[in-house]
Inverse folding.
């Protein structure tokens, strides 16, 4: 049987997700000022990577929570 994560481990996972989302917010805001398609593509890729990082953290936590 898988061991349940401690409350501290769960809080840490939520803190990591929060930090990633906080980092992603300015990326999304900067994307509003893009001047061309290439810049938009770069901003989008960076934002997708940040959101995927957050999603991965939350999916790992969900698996551990059962």
């Amino acid at each position: 049987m898988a061991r349940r994560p401690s409350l501290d481990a769960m809080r840490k996972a939520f803190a990591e997700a929060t930090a990633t989302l906080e980092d992603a917010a300015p990326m999304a805001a900067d994307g509003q000022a893009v001047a061309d398609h290439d810049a938009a593509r770069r901003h989008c890729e960076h934002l997708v990577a940040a959101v995927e990082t957050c999603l991965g953290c939350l999916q790992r936590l969900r698996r551990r929570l059962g």
In short: Residues 37-65 form the longest helix (29 residues).
